[in-house]
Amino acid sequence: MNRAVVAFLAFAAGAVVPFVVQAAGSAETYRQLNLFGDVYERVKSDYVDEVTDEKLVEAAINGMLTSLDPHSSYMNAKAFGDMQVQTRGEFGGLGIEVTMENGFVKVVSPIDDTPASRAGLKTGDFIIALDGKEILGLTLQEAVERMRGPVDSKIVISIKRDGIAKPFDVTLTRAIIKIRAVRSRREGDVIYVRVTQFNEQVDAGVKKAIADLTREIGADKVQGVILDLRNNPGGLLDQAVAISDEFLNRGEIVSTRGRKPDDVSRYSATRGDLAEGKPVIVLINGGSASASEIVAGALQDHKRAVILGTRSFGKGSVQTIIPLPNQGALRLTTARYYTPSGRSIQAKGIDPDRLVTQPPPDGAKPEDAPQLRSEADLPNHLQGEGEGENAAPRSAEEIPEDRAKDEQLKQALALLPTLKVVDGKIAN
């Protein structure tokens, strides 16, 4: 076998080289690997500029993974370290959750109280240039690294937004982003808890918020809980399971099913209900993805909560982080999520029990409201079961800062006192 192929396999597979070599036992596989080796050697020897082995191998790995689905990717040592810091809830940057679509970086959600949210970036915005340099052709990792930089340094981001004919520039000042993933307040005798992403701090934050507000309102006066997961792009599976468990006394929360029939994992609830049997409403919209959909699906299937809003994003795939010998890591899609009733979330999402859309901003027409492209719209997305079936509309509403204009919240507050819970389920 071509030595370049052996080097590539050793780098990419690390400790599992024997498995890769065994899997490559067919003549066709060897032929394809030799083809890769021939191209690799020709680029090394004849490309107009000299290129390093590291750059070529990293590009080859990225190309292989991005051809699979939008969420599989390779992280070098720096990117892997940044990811680990971010899941702990504090990191340097601009404060936006992003994905890659059609060669451009797309804003999934600006994070509350960050430079991005204060500058007015919106879900669905396309970032097309950084400091005047187009990002077309960059990987998502490369674009994200360019957006990072020293604290207090400035960066000019060029935005293409639906409904606005020409791109426009926004100047942001980088800052240390401390994610306050849980926000809460009292709405009369209702406990309102907003979760902006599922990092390591979420379960503890939700417990504290509900306990503090229960004491403030009085346990006998609390009417129920509104859990706001709108524009929450997801995060850690264990935190989604933990939050679901906080409102369930028994039953399955979520299952994951992989490639093999016996590759199934199930997560179940334990006794204990933070809401103490009071009704729960979960708010979702087209920006609610992944871990948010796990929580909404679990509470919906067990009839523990009413799901209110618009259809969620539909990211129902599991990414496993596999550390590599070079201190980097492989993010690989390894399974699909299923709700307790066996519904696949992938490319379909969660339909609300009560469909409520936000009215357009003052002076805007409903047809001009931007529509959030879903998981099913992403190139090379993992096929979902039931994908394309009739479902509730999906929209990318902004959450109005003026609570009086938040129609979804208003309807949730009006609905909650009318709900009754019998044996841990919302009664019809």
From TrEMBL:
This protein's superkingdom? Bacteria
Show the SMART domains listed in the entry. Answer: PDZ, TSPc
Entries under PROSITE patterns matching the protein: PDZ
Q: Which GO terms describe its molecular function?
A: endopeptidase activity; serine-type peptidase activity
SUPFAM superfamilies for this protein: ClpP/crotonase, PDZ domain-like
Residue ranges of domain PDZ in the record: 80-148
Q: What keywords sit in the KW lines?
A: Hydrolase, Protease, Serine protease, Signal
Which terms does the UniProt entry file under GO BP?
A: proteolysis; signal transduction
One Gene Ontology cellular component annotation held by this UniProt entry: outer membrane-bounded periplasmic space
Q: What spans are recorded as compositionally biased (Basic and acidic residues)? A: 364-378, 395-406
Q: Which CDD domains match?
A: cpPDZ_CPP-like, Peptidase_S41_CPP
Chain segments carrying region Disordered:
343-406
Which stretch is the leader sequence?
1-23
PANTHER family, A to Z: CARBOXY-TERMINAL PROCESSING PROTEASE CTPA, TAIL-SPECIFIC PROTEASE
Similarity remark: Belongs to the peptidase S41A family.
Q: Identify this protein by name.
A: Peptidase S41
Give the species this sequence originates from.
Zavarzinia compransoris
